[in-house]
Predict the 3D structure of the following.
Amino acid sequence: MKVMILGADGYLGWPLSLRLMARGHEVIGVDNFATRKSVKEVGSDSAIPILSMENRVKAAKDIHGYNMKFYRGDITKYGVLHKIIKEEKPDTVVHFAEQRSAPYSMINAKHAAYTMSNNIIGTINLIYAIMDIDPKIHIVKMGTMGEFGTPNFDIPESPFVDVEINGRKDRITTPKFAGSWYHWTKVHDTNNILFANKAWKITTTDIMQGPVYGTRTKEITDKKLHSRFDFDEVWGTVVNRFTVESVLGIPLTAYGAGGQIRGYLSLEDSMEALRLLVENPPESGSYRSANQFVELLSINEIADIIQKAAKKHGIDIGVEHMENPRIEADRHYYNPEIKVLPALGFHPKLKMADLSEQLVKDVMPYKARMNKFRERILPHTNWRRVENAR
Amino acid sequence: MKVMILGADGYLGWPLSLRLMARGHEVIGVDNFATRKSVKEVGSDSAIPILSMENRVKAAKDIHGYNMKFYRGDITKYGVLHKIIKEEKPDTVVHFAEQRSAPYSMINAKHAAYTMSNNIIGTINLIYAIMDIDPKIHIVKMGTMGEFGTPNFDIPESPFVDVEINGRKDRITTPKFAGSWYHWTKVHDTNNILFANKAWKITTTDIMQGPVYGTRTKEITDKKLHSRFDFDEVWGTVVNRFTVESVLGIPLTAYGAGGQIRGYLSLEDSMEALRLLVENPPESGSYRSANQFVELLSINEIADIIQKAAKKHGIDIGVEHMENPRIEADRHYYNPEIKVLPALGFHPKLKMADLSEQLVKDVMPYKARMNKFRERILPHTNWRRVENAR
């Protein structure tokens, strides 16, 4: 299979490139290096050093014998994206090329507008490019479980649900209510894709993924093949942030009461899930929504897991509950359905408690490096504060 | 009251400027003249000639003694919008500054992306600008009844509804499913505004308006004060298009079976509704959704009204049902609620059947001018066709 990965330089894009090449697929990577630039912009960097794309591609060749083709390009320019897809004619386009940080989108007007425009236009361009070049191309699009917010109903994988409103029945799109501009762009994308599917029968897998953590996959067998690992308040998700905090001796920064529950999965399990979705496209012309996570955990449970893991490395670390800078409930119902991936043979191998000790171990060698960005860990971006609206 | 109108040069923006000045309000207009440019871009023009903004403002002064201040500016540039609002400190900002044509948004990738970016970024910038300068400013935002599509439930004015999904109850945003990229931008705007209201308590009136038709308002007492009147397949809504067709002797171009029902209102009634919403803001910090229309009519009923009006002017015109270029049901349930405006004292004066004869008469003097753009009336933009995706 020939697979194009938009956002191939990212946390997920790079290991997925390796995984698909390991499976014998031809991989074409595309990236504009926006994440590298934007992480530096907030004064931070990946905890684990990563090579340039050029050297990564070379290392993948030297170490595993993989041949990866790469284009530097910004998919918000229609001509750029169209040209690459026309040249390569992939069977599948995996679309990870979106600004992926919720706090980054909440910094100010400029960052909100950039996130809206970058994410929405990239997806619109992709839809039109495949419609023009080959409408049979399967789009695998990264959405987020955060599109749903924390509803009181069980989160279905179907894009539509049956409801009764004031005594009359209708079929509606599965209700969503996001908690940041970033998360809203994914809702807008989903709506745009559903419309394009209705209008033109594009074939799409829309992945509603929970937060991913971890440093390793089967193919990351060498330092040269590491994926980025962000830990600052803007770019690091909670597990990565807690891991780095424990190594640096900073009490784990739990936002609010810590009862926020999400569906987490490891990098290795995410790769396996993504591979299955790429290798098993839905029926041509159909829209498939897939919830992607392994276990439901609260912030407090995660803090507990990381505390225990740190203890095994002789580190005694506390938890500090701070005012929640985010707009979210910290006590709520949460029960997302997961049937699509298991039906494709998804058998997750790892739970967070199994992986946490290794996680702490993996970042330890970079203590001095992480310490440089120490002041970027505590929240600076308060989503609720009016003066932040500047 | 000091009211800023973003999009003051438009079909609604200009007459609303006049109406609010007639009511003694101070009006600040802002526009980047995008509509004038985009109508020319598709090879068309307003049926009724309109003056430049500079001359309009002068005419309003000469004829009515109104003093209108005007800024030329693009609100998708945050700095531009921020500066104007900071300088003027309005009580209310009426936001009409969005690309308003559904067919225009469906032309190709470039037009889809422009519509998404222009509309969404303008609203994001407005939210941030008022948050920074004065969060008490009332935003009156033009949405569309088209956000709802044609659901099988009665369309409520409340932004949230109670539903049961797979046996569990929740309160969700009122379901929406739009039929063009343009309409989707309004859904995305609504979601973004609801989020900003939740996060920061911005005060907003979100207007879900049906198609507006007509040439006159109480203040348009002179040719120099006319508002634009578009009739081509891209920029003209159905009533205006039918009116011009009847004058040019072109059979009325009804899309599909003609059973599409929408809620229509005249320009005069729209002005009165908008004035009421501006003069009566909702409770500070709240989000108010208002459905805005006067009568529900199907395409076939409108064709009938215009046919009869043309007959009174001695014109015998047929109706031609053509393949529907749009993505919409042409037979459906439609029952939108309307309570907010009547509670403010909205008493619509005119039905389409009362106004249609005058409408035909008003465009007759411009027959030669309209005839120049004759070939722009039949649909060129087929939303369903794959080759249109270029």
